[in-house]
Amino acid sequence: MHIPDGFINAPTSLAAGAVAAGGVGVSLRRAAQTLQERQAPLAGLVAAYIFAVQMLNFPVAAGTSGHLLGGVLAAVLVGPWAGCVCVAVVLVVQSLVFADGGLTALGLNITNMAVVGVFGGWAIFLLLRRVLPATRTSVVVASGVAAGISVVLAASAFVVEYAVGGTGGVPVGTVAAAMVGVHSLIGIGEGIITALTVGVVLGVRPDLVHGAEHLKAPLTLRTSPEPEPAAGR
Amino acid sequence: MRSMNLRLFLVGGLLVAAGLALVVSGFASSSPDGLERVAEDKGFLETARDHVFADGPLADYAVKGVGNERLSTGLSGLIGVLITFGAGLALFALIRGRRSGPGGAGGDGDAKPTRAP
To answer: Does any domain span residue B52?
Structure first.
C-alpha cells in the first residue's frame, strides 16, 4: 500500500507530512518515557521483522497481492508508541534505500500505516481485549482481528487523501469501493500473520508482549529463574 | 540467566527475519499489491512518478549487478533487515539515553524487575 510520488498533490502530501511528523514526534517522546531497557533491542527486532515480512507478498485475488503492514503487530509487541516508531522506521528505510513509497509521499505513507494503522488498530485491539476473557488465546485473537481491520483503516485513510488531493480525477466512490474491497482480503492475511507471530512470542517469551501485560499476576516476585519451555524451532 | 534468554530470543528473531528476507522473499507473489491494482484498474496508475532514487543500488529490492533474480531480491532483503534493525536499535537507544540524562547512567545490563505494579 506504499503510495508513489504523484498520486496525491503537493499540498495534501505536505499536510500529511505534518500529521506524520506530529504522530511520530509524540510517539518518540512517549516511547522514550515508557520503553524499558530490554525492550529497546526488541523494538529494533520488530522493525527488522516487519521489514522482512513486508517483502513477502501473498496472492489475494487474480493478479493481485498483498503484504503485511505490521501496525498492530508492532503495537501489541512493544506498545503503540514504540510501534508507531517501528513502522515509521521501516517506511523511511523502504523509501530512501529501496525506492519503495515516494519521497514526497512519505508523510502520506507514515500517516496511513504508522499512525492510522498503529493507533486505529491498537484501539480496536483494546476494545476486543476488553470484551474477551483475559487469556492468551484472547490476546492472539484480538491481535489478528484488529490487524485485519487496521488494513482497511489504512486503506480508508488513503481514500480520504485521494478525496482531498488525488490527481487522477477518478470518482472517490469508485476508489473507496475498490480500496476497501481488496484490502479486506489483504486484511485476512495481515490477521493470520499477526496472530501467528503474537502466538509464537507469547509461547516463548510472554513477558515481552506489551498487549498481554494485563495477564501478568500482580505483586508476584520471582526469585528463582523460570524453567524455560523448549522452543520448538 | 534471564538476560541470556532475551539475547537468545533476539538472535533467534533476527535469524527468522533474515531467513524470511533472504530466502522466502524470492518466492513471494510478484503481482501488483492492492493499491497498485486499484490504481491500474481505476485508471490513475499513470499519475505515479518515478522515484527519485529509482536508480539506487538497492532500488526495487534488487542488488544492482546481481543477475540471479531470487538471489538479488534475497540479498537486498538481508541488507534491509540489517539496516532496519540497526536504525531501530540506534534510534531507541538514543531516545532512551536522552531520558536517563547525564545523571542517570544506569543500565548495567542486569535485567532488574523495574516494571510498575
So the answer is: no
Nearest to A49 among B2, B17, B35 (CB): B17
Residue B7 belongs to a domain: yes
Q: Which domains does chain A have, with CATH numbers?
A: 10-212 (1.10.1760.20)
- Residues of A within 8 A of B32 (CB-CB) are 63-65
pLDDT digits (tens, 9 = 90+) for B2-41: 445 899 999 999 999 999 999 999 999 999 999 999 999 9
The complex scores an ipTM of 0.90
Is residue B38 a part of any domain in this protein? Answer: no
Say whether B81 and A48 touch across the interface (CB within 8 A): yes
CA angle A92, B49, A94 (to 5 degrees): 15
Model pTM score: 0.89
| B21 located within any domain | yes
Other beta carbons less than 10 A from residue B26's beta carbon: 16
Size of the A and B interface in Cβ pairs below 8 Å: 236
Residue of B nearest to A29 (CA): B95
- What DSSP element (H or E) covers A61? strand A58-61
